[in-house]
TrEMBL record:
Catalysis performed (reactions): tRNA(Asn) + L-asparagine + ATP = L-asparaginyl-tRNA(Asn) + AMP + diphosphate + H(+)
Enzyme Commission number(s) from the entry: 6.1.1.22
Protein name: Asparagine--tRNA ligase
SUPFAM superfamilies: Class II aaRS and biotin synthetases, Nucleic acid-binding proteins
Sequence ranges assigned to domain Aminoacyl-transfer RNA synthetases class-II family profile in this UniProt record: 134-424
Main location as per UniProt: cytoplasm
Superkingdom per UniProt: Bacteria
NCBIfam families: asnS, PRK03932.1
Family to which the UniProt record says this protein belongs: Belongs to the class-II aminoacyl-tRNA synthetase family.
C-alpha cells in the first residue's frame, strides 16, 4: 500500500501508520549505524530516525550524503515521542532525495550578523524562529479580520496609488502619474474609508502603507501593513472601546493558537495574559506632566519621541491610551475638542515593554468649514480633497476610526528586539533587497 503524503502538523491521527513526508533537511546528526534527520515541511518540524539495518544500504548512504536544506521525500512509521516538540518521531523506512544543494547552505548554526541575515532574508525565512514569528503574524491578521467581519465591518479595499495626501506632506513617496500630475503611495486608506463608511456604516481596509520617513529606529519601516476600521456614528469613546476590545481579542487568539511558537521565541506569556480590559487612559496633558516628573525635557505641545513613549509606558502593565493631543502635532482630519480648541479628539494606544504606538485613532472632523480650514492651515492641495469634502456636504455624520500597525503589534506580541523581523520582506531606508 502507498504510504499517504501527510503534513507534519496533521500526523497525530496517523500514529503507528506508515506515511510519506515531503520537505527539507533542517539539521542532521549521524553515527555509523543511525542518522537523525531533522525534517521540516513548512507545517512543522520532526525528527526522522534512520537505522542502517532498517533500510537498503544505498538509502543509508544517500542519507549520509544529504546537505542541510536538501529537499526530500521520506517514508516511515509515525511513533509517539513525548520529548519531541511535535510529539512524534518518524522511523524511516525509505528516502528519496529530490534535490541536494549545490553548495553548503550559507545560514549555519553559528551566530550571524543582522546584515548578513537580512541580505539572506529569502533563506532566513526558513528558520524555525522566522517561521514562529510569521505564524503569529498570520494569526494576528486572521483574528483581526474575523473579529471585524463578525461585528459587521465590511472589507472595502483602498487604493495604494492615490492623488490625495492621507496624513501629511512629510514622508510621502511621490511619483509622476502620466499627464495627471503627482501621485503618492498611500500613507493610509483612511480618506477612502470615510467615504465607504458613508455608504456601508462600518468598514475596514487592510493593506500595505508607505512612509518615506527617515527614521532609523527599531519601530519604523518605510512599508508596513495597517488594519484600519472606520465606523459611522462612533464617537471618540466608542472608537477607543473598539480598539481595546480588538487588541484584547487578538492577544487572546495568539495565546490560544500559538503557544508552541511563543514558547520557541521564549516569550514571557504571563505579560500577555494581563492584556484584558480595562486599559488605562490618560490625556496628553497628563502624559506630559508624568514625563516631566520622570525627568524628560519634553516641552508642552511637542509630540512624544520613542524615548518618551518608552518612559511613559514603563508606568503601566497594559497598553495605555493617550488622548487629546494638541492639534499642531496631529493630522488635519481630526475633530476639534469641544471644550479646548487647541486639542483634537484623538488617541494613541501605546504598548507596554517599550513597543510604542500600536494604534493611532481619532474622531473625524465632520464640520465642512473647520475641515477646510485645517486643510488650508496645513497648506495641503485643496483641489485634491474636493471628493473627500463631499462626505461633509452630503449628510455629514459623526464618525471615527483608527489604524493599527500590524508589525508593531507582532513585534510586541512576539517580544522582538526590532520590527524588521515582524514582516517577511522588511523595507527600511537602508533596505530594498531582497
Ligand atoms: O498614527 P498613524 O500615522 O495613523 C494613520 O495613518 C491613520 N490614518 C489611521 C486611521 O485612523 N485610519 O499610523 C497608525 C499606526 C501607528 O499607530 C503604528 O502602529 C503604525 O501605524 N505605523 C508604523 N508602523 C511601522 N512603521 C512606520 N513607519 C509606521 N508609522 C505608523
Ligand atoms: Mg500616529
Amino acid at each position: 500500500m502507498e504510504a499517504p503524503w501527510i503534513r507534519i502538523v496533521d500526523l497525530a491521527p496517523h500514529e503507528g501508520q506508515e506515511v510519506t513526508l515531503k520537505g527539507w533537511i533542517y539539521n542532521k546528526r549521524s553515527s555509523g549505524k543511525i542518522h537523525f534527520l531533522q525534517i521540516r515541511d513548512g507545517s512543522g518540524f520532526i525528527q526522522g530516525v534512520m537505522e542502517r539495518t532498517a533500510v537498503p544500504e544505498e538509502t543509508f548512504q544517500a542519507a549520509k550524503g544529504l546537505w542541510i536544506e536538501a529537499s526530500v521525500e521520506v517514508r516511515g512509521t509515525v511513533r509517539r515521542d513525548e520529548r519531541a516538540p511535535s510529539g512524534f518521531e518518524l522511523s524511516v523506512s525509505d528516502l528519496v532525495v529530490v534535490s541536494n544543494p549545490v553548495e553548503e547552505y550559507p545560514i549555519t548554526k553559528k551566530e550571524h550578523g543582522i546584515d548578513f541575515l537580512l541580505d539572506n532574508r529569502h533563506l532566513w525565512l526558513r528558520s524555525h524562529r522566522q517561521q514562529a514569528i510569521l505564524k503569529i503574524r498570520d494569526r494576528v491578521i486572521l483574528s483581526c479580520r474575523t473579529y471585524l467581519h463578525d461585528r459587521g465591518f465590511l472589507l472595502v479595499d483602498s487604493p495604494i496609488l492615490t492623488g490625495s495626501i492621507g496624513e501629511g506632506a512629510d514622508g510621502l513617496f511621490e511619483l509622476d502619474y502620466f499627464d495627471q500630475g503627482k501621485a503618492y503611495l498611500a500613507q493610509t486608506g483612511q480618506l477612502y474609508l470615510e467615504a465607504a463608511a458613508a455608504a456601508y456604516g462600518r468598514v475596514y481596509c487592510f493593506g500595505p502603507t508607505f512612509r518615506a520617513e527617515k527614521s532609523k529606529t527599531r519601530r519604523h519601516l518605510t512599508e508596513f501593513w495597517m488594519i484600519e476600521p472606520e465606523a459611522a456614528f462612533f464617537d471618540h469613546k466608542d472608537n477607543m472601546a473598539l480598539q481595546e476590545d480588538l487588541v484584547c481579542h487578538v492577544v487572546a487568539q495568539v495565546l490560544e493558537h500559538c503557544r508552541p511558537e511563543l514558547a520557541f521565541l521564549e516569550r514571557d506569556t504571563s505579560l500577555l495574559e494581563r492584556i484584558v480590559p480595562p486599559f488605562p487612559h490618560i490625556t496628553y496633558d497628563e502624559a506630559v506632566g508624568i514625563l516631566q516628573k520622570l525627568g524628560s525635557d519634553i516641552p508642552y505641545g511637542d509630540d512624544f519621541g520613542g524615548d518618551d513613549e518608552t518612559l511613559l509606558t514603563q508606568q503601566f502593565e497594559k497598553p495605555v491610551f493617550v488622548e487629546c493631543y494638541p492639534k499642531g502635532v496631529k493630522a488635519f482630519y481630526m475633530k476639534q475638542h469641544p471644550e479646548r480648541e487647541d486639542l483634537v479628539l484623538c488617541d494613541d494606544l501605546l504598548a507596554p515593554e517599550g513597543y510604542g504606538e500600536i494604534i493611532g485613532g481619532s474622531q473625524r472632523e465632520d464640520d465642512l468649514d473647520r475641515l477646510l480650514g485645517r486643510i488650508r492651515e496645513q497648506k495641503l492641495p485643496e483641489e485634491s480633497y474636493s471628493w473627500y469634502l463631499d462626505q461633509r456636504r452630503f449628510g455629514s455624520f459623526p464618525h471615527s476610526g483608527f489604524g493599527m500597525g500590524i508589525e508593531r503589534l507582532v513585534a510586541w506580541i512576539c517580544g522582538l528586539q526590532h520590527i524588521r523581523e515582524a514582516i517577511p520582506w522588511p523595507r527600511t531606508i537602508y533596505r530594498i533587497h531582497p
